[in-house]
Each structure stands twice: as C-alpha cells, then as structure tokens.
Amino acid sequence: MRTSSSGDRAFASATKLTPETASGFVSSCGALAQDAASSVAASTVTKASSGRPVRIKHFIIHSSDIRVIDLLTEALYNISNRYMQDTSRTRFLILGLLAEGPCSGYDIRRITGVRFRFFWSESYGQIYPCLKRLEAAGLIERIGTALRAKVLWGITESGRRELIAWLIVEAQPETARIESILKYYFSWAMPEQAAKRLLESFRDRQALNLSELEAFRRELRSIPDPHGNHDLALDTIELGIATYTAWRDWAMERLTSSSRAKPPDASHTHPVNEGGVES
Fold it and tell me: Which end of the chain has fewer CB atoms within 10 angstroms, the N or the C?
C-alpha cells in the first residue's frame, strides 16, 4: 500500500483535505503531482495571506478567490512531456471511447481492432489492467453488465476532464516500427527470392487491409449515427485507405523494378557530423 509522502502532507495542509484524500489525489495524478504538490502548498501558505497575487507555475490567483485544489488540478492536467512519456496512452483511448458511450473491455478491443487498426493497437492484456487502474483513480465506473456478464464501463466527470486535458496538449511525435520495411532496407543480405516474397507479402497485406477498411467505410455510411462521430471515423478511415494504398503501390513498384541492392563495402562506416546526423 502507498504511504503518505511529505508532498502529500503539504498538499493536504494547503487544501484542507484529509491526508487520505490528498494522498489518493496525488497518487491518481501520477508522478507530476508529487513534484508540484510541495511547491504549490508552500507558495500558497506563505503568500496567500499577503493580499498579493500568487504566481505558481505560470498561473496567477488572487487571494480573494484562491482555490488551491482548482489550481493544482489545472496545473496537473496541463500534462508535461515527461508525464506523457511516463503514462500509458491506453488510458486515453479508453476514456475517449467511453466518452462516446458505455463499453465493455471486449467492445474497446473490438472497436480498436477495426476502427483504429492502421494507426493504433491495444491488446486485452493492456486494456483490462488499465480499466482497473482508471476505476481505482475514479476516472471510470461500472454502470452495468452487457451480454455474457461483461462489465459495462462509463466515464466519470473526472475522466472527462482527464481526457480533455490530454486532447489539448501537443501530441508526441509519430513513431513507426514496420518490420517488413526494416527487412527491405537490409534486403541486400537476402536471397533474391526471399526479398521478392517479402515484398509480395507486404503488398498482399496492404491489399487485404484496404479491402477491410473499404468495407467498414461502406457499412459506416449506411447505418445511423447516434453519437454523431461517424464523420470523424470516416476521416480517419480515409487516412488509413490512403496509407494502405501508398504502401501497396510502393511494394508493387519495387516488385516491377529490375534493380537489386548490392552488398555494402565491408569497410563502410556510418559517419556522423557534430549534430549527430549522418553526413
């Protein structure tokens, strides 16, 4: 069990919360809360009674309307890059889907596998533990059961605030790990037929992905839109179709090309300039 820290106690003193409530709040908000709690509490206790504005991490609050809990909540939800990097994005996928409507863990996995498959993936092993953590943090709640006794989850007001806070901060840079492309880069070391099969398999997977996304687009256009989000879903599907089309066409062009990469010189090195970029 988590023990109360000095930051928790300082936060509790400044906000007049019980130590247990303060500890739970700090714990649920993550590591950033522990860094901010002591400075927020100290600044508020020493300056609020002076009648002068209080400046804490770019926020200014006057003593006439000071609400420390609101201040700290706002500061914590303005998520820093470090906090984002340390926190699983699975939570935001779940919160976003639950903001659209109640879902079971199975529903979340199914929707992700169909609607988001070309830019996001989650496993049951990621979703179910995250649901429990979100429930413990008060960001989601059990609202009933679905078929086969599956738990149906709903988002709380705290969960909506957490979602909105994540949505308004800058996204992390896009990353990609596509093994087929990495293998193609080193295909000079592969037998020619193996390199050809690699491209053929890659082409065929993109063609299948295209077929599935196009079918989903047709289905989505033909059914009611109770949550009013079909246009956004269709926009992401269009991006997926464009992406899979480009990947398929790239593989087809490589297959029709007669060029073949030559093995590199054994004495080849990867020189870099002072900025760490290959020259």
Answer: N
pLDDT bin (cut points 50, 70, 90) of residue 13 is low
12 neighbors 38 (Cβ within 8 angstroms):
no
Backbone angles phi, psi at 140, to 5 degrees: -135, 165
Four-way CATH pick for 88-168: 1.10.3720.10, 3.40.50.720, 3.90.640.20, 1.10.10.10: 1.10.10.10
Beta carbons within 8 Å of 24's beta carbon, 6+ residues apart: none
Give the pair of three-digit tokens for residue 56: 């804490």
Dist CA 237 CA 214 (whole Å) = 8
pTM of the model: 0.55
pLDDT at 20 over 60: no
- CA 103, 108, 113, 116 dihedral sign is positive
The pLDDT, as a whole number, for residue 154 is 96
pLDDT at 225: 83
For residues 223 and 250, what is the distance between their CA atoms, to the nearest angstrom?
34
The predicted-structure confidence for 153-186, as pLDDT tens digits, reads as follows 999 999 999 999 989 988 888 777 889 999 999 9
Smallest CA-to-CA distance from 210 within 245, 246, 163, 251 is with 245
Structure tokens belonging to residue 4: 């109360």
Name the most confidently modeled range: 48-52, 65-69, 241-245: 241-245
Hey, what are 279's tokens? 């020259």
